[in-house]
Design brief:
With 296 residues, the protein is mostly helical. 57% of the residues lie in helices and 3% in strands.
Amino acid sequence: MLFSQRNGFKSIKTVLQIGSIDSDLMNRLWNILLEGFFNQFSNVRCQGDLQPKRGEVCRLIWIEFFNLQVDKIPKYSASDVINSDGFLGYLKKWFFTYADWYEIYDLIEFIGSAKIDDLYYTEQTQIKFIEECNLALKKEVAGYRIVNNKVLQIVSEEEILTIEEASSLKDKLSIVSLHLKTGLDLLADRKNPDYRNSIKESISAVESITKIISGNSKDTLAGAIDKIKSKIKIHAALERGFKQIYGYTSDADGIRHGLTEMADCDFEDAKFMLVSCSAFINYLIAKSAKAGITFE
């Protein structure tokens, strides 16, 4: 875990890139814009065409996205042919210097949902562009994905608050937060995300707090839940749910065993477990407080 995350200097929003885009993600998205979009169009004017295809695309973005005056678009001095290199220079300066993070997503969404015809690009190329953008968003752990040609937030504010609350526990419960922070770190590792062990850490956080409440460090999660039911009232559906999740993670084909085998885990699985376990931990703390149980 990085020092900044371990000591709380980096917020979960920063780690998961909510409301921001860092330089690594900007570089990835810019490269996709160039190679996955603009470079798909010829910069050579065919017979009978007023503009090269790339020039027409630049004109579309200039007018429809930026809403700028058409006679101000960069052109070659000796003709009315659009200078796509000049336009791309303008676009790059806007992209890296002036655009807010959400305006970059506006541009990605605009291009991803552009009209499909011979002038712009084929449906297959458009699908590939969106797939490449989503892959970049996943690699850089952004809290957004393109779904049905729209950029959507996949990590809600409520989920963020839930994780932050459970990850900031102190004193006797600090071990619980440590498991969750480690799970977040494994989930958010951009070079080598470890979704499987992130899930392990999330369920270990729940196991830790149930052992603390039960007073027996040797308890399993299921055994601890059975014991703490006499101290605090737990909703039956939640009890069953987390026992089943624990059973999955402890199963021979689950997360905790056979670590040399690849488990079919992805970002969505690890995020779900991190959020769900954080919520259950917060629930247990609230219930404990009502029962007069303290953790100092």
